[in-house]
Specification:
It contains 2 helices and 7 strands. By secondary structure, the chain is mainly β. It starts with 5 loop residues before the first strand and ends with a strand.
Length: 115
């Protein structure tokens, strides 16, 4: 989505988006990283699968799905990456640091579900 189609993060009137052009998630949305065990080329660390976090930012512009692209199956279709904030207590249950501590990671749209 080009920046000129947004005004304060909201699509401007009259703009019609194709599938995958408009982000599914918005900053502040609660999400979970999917627990999948694909064979081959994947981009989500195992220790973060199933963990909950919050969308901190939509990464623009949309990017090609690198998992599909690795096998020549994408044909250039694009979707969004999101910066996800995950509390350290979500990753390590007995984490003794500050409750404000967290990890930030960019995750492709196909690996996220709304909670």
């Amino acid at each position: 989505m080009a920046s000129e189609t947004l005004q304060d993060g909201v699509p401007m009137a009259g703009i019609v988006f194709a599938f995958g052009e408009q982000p599914i998630f918005r900053p502040g949305d609660a999400v979970r990283i999917l627990t999948r065990t694909p064979v081959g080329h994947y981009r989500v660390p195992t220790y973060l699968r199933g963990k909950r976090g919050t969308v901190e930012r939509v990464i623009e512009p949309a990017g090609v799905d690198n998992e599909q692209e690795a096998y020549g199956r994408n044909a250039g279709a694009k979707r969004h990456y999101y910066r996800i904030a995950i509390p350290m207590t979500e990753i390590w249950q007995d984490y003794a640091g500050s409750s404000r501590d967290g990890l930030r990671i960019e995750v492709f749209e196909t690996w996220l579900e709304r909670i």
